[in-house]
Amino acid sequence: MGSLEAERTTVGLAARDPSGILSPYTYNLRNTGPDDVYIKVHYCGICHSDLHQIKNDLGMSNYPMVPGHEVVGEVLEVGSNVSRFRVGELVGVGLLVGCCKNCQPCQQDIENYCSKKIWSYNDVYVDGKPTQGGFAETMIVEQKFVVKIPEGLAPEQVAPLLCAGVTVYSPLVHFGLKESGLRGGILGLGGVGHMGVKIAKALGHHVTVISSSDKKKQEALEHLGADQYLVSSDATAMQEAADSLDYIIDTVPVGHPLEPYLSLLKLDGKLILMGVINTPLQFVSPMVMLGRKSITGSFIGSMKETEEMLEFWKEKGLSSMIEMVNMDYINKAFERLEKNDVRYRFVVDVKGSKLVDQ
């Protein structure tokens, strides 16, 4: 047990402006307390929302910004109130590092819907210091927002689960879509989409991958184990698939029409939006009314759901499909991510990279 009272500095890779170019940046970690865990970052996944943030796509970015919110690391020290974690353990940190603890969502242990939640970066902590993310040597995180990594899981493979994995798992649980035999659609086969295929298949669902072209067909069917592949521009195939799906997980992070996909849903089917999109989406109301269909959304998952999902992942013997890169490749990785040139998630080897502020 430690007091964590000494002020600490660390080095991360920060964007300084909407160009999104990351470069080394030395900064002070926030003030610490008895409930905090001091973590040495080993791995951090790269999420499409990191790209939105560093480029100020949503108009809310503050610089300098150290992104990264799929963090796996080692506990270096714990505060005096911390009993769940020990020095040397592998732990994970996701998109949130704070919440009000008093509102209805917090009381129901769905703090991811707290209106005063604190993001792991591009936000301000309760002590007034800006939060900074996982593309850095170390982090300080309140124990509530830290999860244990189950033994037997490869730590680099766990990183994408802390955002992409729980983002898919949470709505399937919440909307009662866990039973085997359901027919699900995964729209978009990127980082979140590939997690969707793996988790839905592990639940015993018949899974259709929906994409704008057939270039990922072999990967979807042979590598990920999807049951069917549907090209959205193929009008005949789309018509044949009408009214066939119980749900669609829509992971597309750019503006797109909803009507073609609403037509694929059965009576009471759900279109679950996952992509962060900064332009309005449109549909005509009969597409929803005539099948009592739902357009809904879901935002990451709670800490309890994250822990549950990690145990599920271990129990089912699943694995992520990742491409490991070093910190000096990170700007190139973001360039490739913008072009959808990754199968299916970049994970940065922070521990194995040398970070020096220029």
TrEMBL record:
It holds the Pfam family ADH_N. GO terms for biological process: lignin biosynthetic process. CDD domains: CAD1 (cd05283). Residues 20-348 form the Enoyl reductase (ER) domain. One of its GO terms (molecular function) is cinnamyl-alcohol dehydrogenase activity. SUPFAM superfamilies: GroES-like (SSF50129), NAD(P)-binding Rossmann-fold domains (SSF51735). The keyword Cytoplasm does not apply. It comes from the Eukaryota. Keywords: Metal-binding, Oxidoreductase, Zinc. InterPro entries: ADH-like_C, ADH-like_N, ADH_Zn_CS, CAD-like, ER, GroES-like_sf, NAD(P)-bd_dom_sf. Its cofactor is Zn(2+). The keyword Nucleus does not apply. Belongs to the zinc-containing alcohol dehydrogenase family. This is Enoyl reductase (ER) domain-containing protein. It comes from Glycine max (Soybean).
